[in-house]
Design a protein that fits this description.
Strand content of chain A: under 5%
Largest interface: A-B, 51 and 52 residues
Oligomer: heterodimer
Number of strands of chain A: 2
Structural class of chain B: mainly alpha
Radius of gyration of chain A: 21 Å
Shape of chain B: globular
Largest sheet of chain B: none
Number of helices of chain B: 11
CATH superfamily of chain B: Ferritin, core subunit, four-helix bundle
Radius of gyration of chain B: 18 Å
Bound molecules: fe (ii) ion
Order of helices and strands of chain B: HHHHHHHHHHH
Number of strands of chain B: 0
CATH topology of chain B: Ferritin
Helix content of chain A: 55-70%
Structural class of chain A: mainly alpha
Mean pLDDT of chain B: 97
Low-confidence stretches of chain B: none
Low-confidence stretches of chain A: none
CATH class of chain B: Mainly Alpha
Distance between the termini of chain B: 30 Å
Number of helices of chain A: 13
Largest sheet of chain A: 2 strands, antiparallel
Shape of chain A: globular
Amino acid sequence: MYAQMIKSTGKTVKTLDEMDPQERAFQERIDAGGKIEPKDWMPDGYRKTLIRQIGQHAHSEIVGQLPEGNWITRAPTLERKAILLAKVQDEAGHGLYLYCAAETLGVSRDQLTRDLLSGKMKYSSIFNYPTLTWADMGAVGWLVDGAAIMNQVPLQRTSYGPYARAMVRICKEESFHQRQGFDIMMKMANGTDAQRKMAQDALNRFWGPALMMFGPSDENSVHSAQSMAWKIKMNSNDELRQKFVDQTAPQAAYLGLTIPDETLAWNEERGHYDFAQPDWSEFFDVLKGNGPCNTERLEARNKAWDDGAWVREGLMAHAAKRRSNQFAAE
Amino acid sequence: MSAALFEFLTRMGDNTLVLGHRVSEWCGIAPVLEEDIALANTALDLIGQTTLWLSLAGEVEGKGRDADALAFHRDVWDFRNLLITEQPNGDFGQTMMRQFLFDCWHVLYLDALRNSSDARIAAIAEKSLKEVTYHFERSAETVIGLGDGTEESHRRMQAALNRLWPFVGEMFDSDAVDQEMIAQGIAPDPQALRPAFDAKLTDVMAKATLAIPGDDFSHAGGRNGARHTEHLGHMLTQMQWLQRAYPDATW
Ligand SMILES: [Fe+2]
Ligand SMILES: [Fe+2]
Ligand SMILES: [Fe+2]
């Protein structure tokens, strides 16, 4: 999940009776499974929460290029290099669709970018972890794209039309990424001793951070209750995390790798795996900017933006000249 | 096997491998999101073309080396790419100028290769040309936009052209390998492509308001492997590290 700790209005969720007619009509439309489109009336809180959520998701796609881009120039075969390039290109494309979806809510891509670069807006905590070996390309695809899909598949039914449609396109590609990641893990897990060691090490380092992607338990969160009433959040964080563990545990067993959680066990009664919570103090550290790569990631994005200023200005100046020449010719 | 044919195919495959690698170094740090996507796409096309050329090279050589073995287990002196492709990215302007100069040659060369007497080569050229035509349109458009943009972008593009100009001449060098390819109807004479190249170049540089340097000096040593620049070795330390550190592994 690429959106974490999104704050909505902060007040308790209104009942239909407490709403004025406009807001009630809006809520009833959502309750009936209808879609909200950019030109429709919407409560201020709905708009603001969506901008935060879609913006954070878009930023995650953009920053997410960095940990994987880290291995493109060191990919082990031409085919793996091509697959990784295509994946990173997809992620940039996801960023683009999502910025477009956010723009329909009245915020510009430039504004969102400035908020990312200044640190005002966040991106998913997972991209603040380093990718240290080639096996990390497998682990990221398998676990990170895997966790993202858990959250994004239900969001295809979200109430905001442009967001839902962006998710439909994105989900197709994410499941492809997950399969490619798993394929890398298979090769590694069935490879030499060194490769098996790399694969296990990658799982050890990414397991906790992957569980954190869903965010802390939000059973009692007002923000989550409001977002769920608006159908911009479809499941609780714990529900999605459980689903992720249930899906991933047998896959790890199939690979012959050990999930770094001694308490992990199938619970017959619940029909789910029991598992240990990740280290939430680490999660809050990462959120505060103290993850292993927060500084590098923001530096890299800021440098790219600053170094690119002359290019953006140059191309804009040229486009303006062209327009005025056209005008003069008419 | 024909030694000259192998040599010719590694020239084609090493150009796309080395330039594809350079372009892929931009991943995630381009000036705008649209450029991130476009650069990744260019790199992806070039790496795809590399697989086609080097697979055929391995087949022609007949020693059991596939495209990966050729890409990741040869040292600098065995590489046959044009020196321009191994030049560092520099700023975005230098990267796009390098791309334009290469694309401009690549389009013409591939176009001629479509008539190769070797059907396998004609097929690779046919497929590659579709992609490369698009690369050329984009790089030309970017060079024009930045050349004729702001004062700063103009200054940077002129500097990029001056910096890369001494590497243009090598594209049109012709040696014994070329003579054999010409004799067998496999590939065109590089020299014969120069007028068409100059025409395209002159057109784009005029629109970009950039001055083509007058000095015709050109470096050589990439396409015959005699003397690469120092940059290629550093690229290989990164590109080939994993394969050499874990030679028993398959990935
Ligand atoms: Fe994505
Ligand atoms: Fe992703
Ligand atoms: Fe993905």
